[in-house]
Automatic annotation (TrEMBL):
The keyword Transmembrane helix does not apply. The keyword Transport applies. GO terms for molecular function: ATP binding. It comes from Ornithinimicrobium cryptoxanthini. This is ABC transporter ATP-binding protein. It comes from the Bacteria. SMART domains: AAA.
Amino acid sequence: MTEPLLRATDLTLRFGGNIALDGVSFDVHQGELLAIIGPNGAGKTSTFNCISGVYRPQAGDVRFQGESLLGKRPHKIAARGIARTFQNIELFDNLSVLENLLLGRHHLMRVPWWQAMAWLPAAQREERAARLEIEHLIEFLGLTAVRRHPVGILPYGIKKRIELGRALAMKPELLLLDEPVAGMNAEETEDMARFILDIRTELGMAIVMVEHDMRLVMDLADRVLVIDFGRPIALGTPQEVQHDPAVIAAYLGGAADEVLQGLGEEAP
Ligand SMILES: Nc1ncnc2c1ncn2[C@@H]1O[C@H](COP(=O)(O)OP(=O)(O)OP(=O)(O)O)[C@@H](O)[C@H]1O
């Protein structure tokens, strides 16, 4: 198998006496969709935060294209090619869809600030190229009809799609999706699922997705990592993890019926 795009090894993260992560390891390969699941407080967001530089684990390593990300600031990690979306939407409500996506593209601009200020030809060329790419992205995400609308007036499902667009505007090689369908109705969830699939198949992008919606996870993921109390308890294909007794046990006591149905099992 080829060298992984991302390799997390033995991630250990503590907050005082509270252990958020305890030896979490996994690889993400080019073009793969890895889902991370687990009960509330299991350590899913902490894992994302260790990858994106928000938290620094006390032990373990995260390597992206062979290079350690430890100690790098979040904006440097984003510039290296890892973009993320958040559980809570973080967009500029007063700016248009187009402007929000252009801001996502901004960190890739190469022209020095003094050329941009003077609006010299190189800056104009770069701006034109960025706009063209963003227009393609807007079309790809079916946002053409609302491209000039201020984000604040748009429905929740569309806002989540714009947030996805802003992450894609950074032209990442790895996309981290934190609960992409949380709070969505069935139709919005279906739309989002289609876009996630398109990103993987048409753009060939690797994706790590944290999600509670088990149907979505089982439909979309190539592999699933299951975390419980900060410890990895299973890693395999959706079929493998859904029959894993440790996974079924981890979810008992929570919303077992709902979750096990999502996993394709009858709740006991
Ligand atoms: N900044 C922090 N300070 C203290 N404890 C934290 C912090 N961030 C996370 N934790 C703790 O680490 C553990 C893992 O939390 P995390 O948010 O990663 O879980 P999660 O699986 O994403 O949960 P959820 O599904 O509810 O979003 C929890 O016990 C949580 O309270």
